[in-house]
Amino acid sequence: SRTITSSGGSYSQDESGAAWSDLYSVAVQHSHKVVHDLVYRLVNRRLLHEGDFFILFNRRDALRADTIAFLTDFVIAFFENRGSAATHIGMAQLEAVIRSQMEEYGKSTLRLDPHTGELHPRSMTGLLGQLEGDVSESWITYMRYRYTDLSGQNVRNKIAHGHLRYHQAQWGMSCILLFDMLRGFLELERAYT
Asked: Cβ(179)–Cβ(35) under 8 Å?
């Protein structure tokens, strides 16, 4: 069966994913507000600079040169308050960062196509599934809610398919993307080193 949304779109009931509680949504919104406030203060007090991120990304041996170049563009757009550009560049690189780290730690980032027998890159959902049991369950839950689950915020798919509203793709969203990348570094390091 199909359900019609308030915006006139529709989705199949079997595509709706897990149900997320209102309490979880409120908790995520609150934590995002705290991150926004913290990063805003650090940047405005000049305690956090572009160069800090350039150093961090360039010290990551697992990141490809292309990924570092895109992350550099992401950070520049973020610090220049070009939220829409930063959001789109950063979202495209979040999955690349997770994939690169997983490869560095010897985790599978490929899946076997049962029909052709060919190997293909795992989707972000598949990457998160490979990390289950190794990294914090709360981080996996959050990443699914925020980026990939159809009944969550599903930010990755909204951006990739042109469904994100322009007013949403601003500084706050790019701030959370940057923070989520940094948290991803920490989660995988904690799990595999």
From this structure: yes
Instruction: Give the number of other Cβ atoms within 10 Å of residue 185's Cβ.
Output: 17
> What CA–CA distance (Å, rounded) separates 9 from 20?
20
d(CA 183, CA 69) in angstroms, rounded, equals: 20
Inter-residue contact 153 to 176 (CB < 8 Å): no
In b/e form, how buried is each residue of 13-24, taking b as 16+ CB within 10 angstroms? Answer: eeeebeebeeee
- Residue of 65, 61, 39 lying closest to 52 (CA atoms): 39
Q: Residue 119 forms beta bridges with which residues?
A: 112
The helix or strand, by DSSP H or E, that contains position 10, with its residue range, turns out to be strand 10-12
b/e per residue, 111-125, with b = 16+ CB within 10 A? beeeeeeeeeebebe
Short-list 146, 121, 151, CA closest to 20: 151
Query: What is the pTM assigned to this prediction?
Result: 0.87
The count of other CB atoms within 10 Å of the CB of residue 2 is 8
Encode the chain (193 residues) as per-residue pLDDT tens digits: 445 554 455 444 444 456 899 999 999 999 999 999 999 999 999 999 999 999 999 999 999 999 999 999 999 999 999 999 999 999 999 999 999 999 999 999 999 999 999 999 999 999 999 999 999 999 999 999 999 999 999 999 999 999 999 999 999 999 999 999 999 999 999 999 9
